[in-house]
Amino acid sequence: MDKLQHANQLLQWREQRQLSAEQLQQASGQFPLQPATGLWLAQANLILLFGTVVLLGAALIFFLAHNWPFMHYFTKFALAAGALALSGVIAIRSVPASLVQRAALLAAAILTGALLALIGQTYQTGADIWQLFAGWAALITPLVLLSKSRACYLLWFVVLELALGRYLSTQSEFFWLLASPPMILNLALANLVILAFAEFALPRLGVKANQTLVRLAALILIAPLTYGAGIGTWDNSYQPNLLVYLPLTAVLTLWYWRQRRDVLILALLAFSAITVATSMLASLLEHADDFFAMNLLALFVIGSSVAAVIWLKKLQQTVVGKTT
User: Fold this and answer.
1) Could you tell me the mean pLDDT of each successive run of 10 residues in the chain, 324 residues long?
2) pLDDT per residue as tens digits for the range 232-276
3) Which pTM value belongs to this model?
């Protein structure tokens, strides 16, 4: 638990009158209540460095797009390839595992996608967009593994998700989320693989603080699972989604309750369960009196939400108490 979390907990205890002013003063000698100047500078340096990388990559992309009719394609390739080569040289010449190297690898990963888009637009290869994203994800995989950076892994996850979404959209005439139950189920299962990778593989690959990536992976898993299961309470064609949802969310809840104690993921799972249960109750009340059904559903949503919040609050206090 870092110093800022300790300070936050001490201040909460003081607000709850569990600590006196003298006890708080004594504790502040070991755990400063305000972040030191060095922490502010380190965080600002991190934000500015990676923000600069993202903005420079976006600037190159928009420069090429704005001046597309006025530039020879050799000039476009020279700019994109030159920027990619420069980021590669910086990554090679910088100190291994340093912020500069990670930022340079992130720039190389972004510019790889820009170069692929430039090639596709120039030569009109006829490839689907999902193939562009899939190729982008495949090409930057070595860079991502080398970087051990959460920013690079975040970009990689986003590109993979875009590739999956665009691939599913090619399999239907409609928006993929409204098209087919198997598509939603396949997306959820693919996202389950991403969650397992973020949970178990990232620490072994050198990514120390993987909690943010795990939570993002959990979100993109729970969203299609909940959507498919909610419709499955009404539509028989979506029942496989519901049948997968029930045991999978039960396993996830047990894991993040007993093993990881991640309150945010448990909150996602709790309100996902409330959503599916509300949909199931609504399907049971389909032929009931409208006034009775609406009021019962409202009471159920309010009551279950309050119960979930109380449980999560107690769980959060337990987690904080164990880590202090």
Assistant:
1) 63 67 70 71 84 88 82 84 92 89 93 87 72 92 92 94 84 59 87 94 86 93 92 87 94 90 92 95 86 92 95 81 54
2) 888 888 889 999 999 999 999 999 998 888 899 999 999 999 999
3) 0.82
What does the H/E/C string look like for the chain? CCHHHHHHHHHHHHHCCCCCHHHHHHHHHHCCCCCCHHHHHHHHHHHHHHHHHHHHHHHHHHHHHHCHHHCCHHHHHHHHHHHHHHHHHHHHHCCCCCHHHHHHHHHHHHHHHHHHHHHHHHHCCCCCHHHHHHHHHHHHHHHHHHHCCHHHHHHHHHHHHHHHHHHHHHCCCCCHHHCCHHHHHHHHHHHHHHHHHHHHHHHHCCCCCCHHHHHHHHHHHHHHHHHHHHHHCCCHHHHHHHHHHHHHHHHHHHHHHHHCCCHHHHHHHHHHHHHHHHHHHHHHCCCCCHHHHHHHHHHHHHHHHHHHHHHHHHHHHHHHHHHC
Q: Where exactly are the structural domains of the chain?
A: 50-170, 179-324
